[in-house]
Design goal:
The protein is an alpha/beta fold and about 400 residues long. About 50% of the residues lie in helices and about 20% in strands. It contains 15 helices and eleven strands. The chain binds nicotinamide-adenine-dinucleotide (NAD).
Length: about 400
Amino acid sequence: MEQINIYSGKKAVSRIVTGDTITGLEACLQPYRSVFAIVDRNVAEKCPAAATLMEILKRSKVKVRFIDSSEQTKTLESVMDICAWLLDNNADRDALLLAAGGGITTDMAGFAACIYKRGVRFAYVPTTLLSQVDAAIGGKTGVNFDRYKNILGIIRQPAFTYICPQMLESLPKRDFLSGVAEMLKTFVIEDNGNYQKAADLFFDIQSEFHVEVMMYGKDEESVWKGLLQKHRKSLNQLIAAAARVKAGVVSRDQFEKDERRKLNLGHTFAHAIETLAQKEVLARQDSSIDGLSAEDLHFPDGVTHGEAVAIGMVLAARLADRYYRNDSNETTALEAKISNDLWDCDIPCYCPYSIEELAAIMKKDKKAEGDRIHFVLPRSIGEVETVELTLEDVCILMK
Ligand SMILES: NC(=O)c1ccc[n+]([C@@H]2O[C@H](COP(=O)([O-])OP(=O)(O)OC[C@H]3O[C@@H](n4cnc5c(N)ncnc54)[C@H](O)[C@@H]3O)[C@@H](O)[C@H]2O)c1
């Protein structure tokens, strides 16, 4: 087991524990007298390691509530439900709320813990790659509101995050790749040689997957699972490396006053893409919205957070080039590299929306500060810079 701390000044305020199996969680729970758990129902039903997780919770006398997670139910109402359940079960100020699930579950349960009785302690067992490398680290909690993503929330650190790759074995391939996009984003920000290692590993996994499935007609799910097991050691090392990068940035700037902003690489574009894609889904249900009809869907299966970040990262690389060189309409080396690596990992990163469509949404984005918006621009792999730009500047540069 490895432990990575998040600091506030010299004080460790949160710890990230990485363990090969879920059994290590039991020791982490030991110091807590009264523990309540929110568990994603998909995890409980599909993840082989969930049986051991449930045994640990039973032995530790933890009360458990299962929830369904979706962006549509990532709402204040769901947070209130969690608080009501805590009240019904007499959770006092000494309680620890444990959340086992992906970013939706940890964001919601974390938020509930922050407001219940003015704040109780909480901890996470992230069960998606995206939450292991990103969402469950750094203390951002929150919910969607009024069609804006994560617009309501609080930054407060979990007592601990227990990262266990066993929990990923049941994760659908598409959700797994969503996490790969966030991992690559992390290494574009701070490399230490890990970006290329990650790109190579996931390219290899993808190539092996295609050979087994396309050439030998094997079952996709079991091939995928087998490949994750085969490459578990390299994967674990990369997950821990990404967690270390995020922990370091958060320790230096917990409340996103400065350096932490760089973790938003690709996200300003990504949020706009997610909003537009969501509008399309609504249009499918109601063809009168904004004149969109079901035939206009760019993302018939929706877009995952990581997929949106992948597209956003490519757009950020293009913007960086236009901003720094100011004379280029060509696809640049960095944009080409990032998008080729993403495609090689089977992560689609083509943006179907115009810059004007994106800008209209970004205008309302929560990160808008007056006229200017922070954009994180990659200069090279491992080097990013945050600049403030108006949307008019961005539209001109990206034309
Ligand atoms: N707090 C932060 O700093 C932060 C950072 C990035 C993203 N986020 C948030 O995270 C959310 C996305 O989270 P996510 O992509 O981790 O996952 P998720 O919570 O959206 O889950 C994706 C799907 O996978 C299922 N699932 C989860 N774990 C599984 C497992 N082990 N086996 C089978 N199915 C499983 C879930 O039930 C769900 O259907 C977004 O709402 C985003 O805003 C938060």
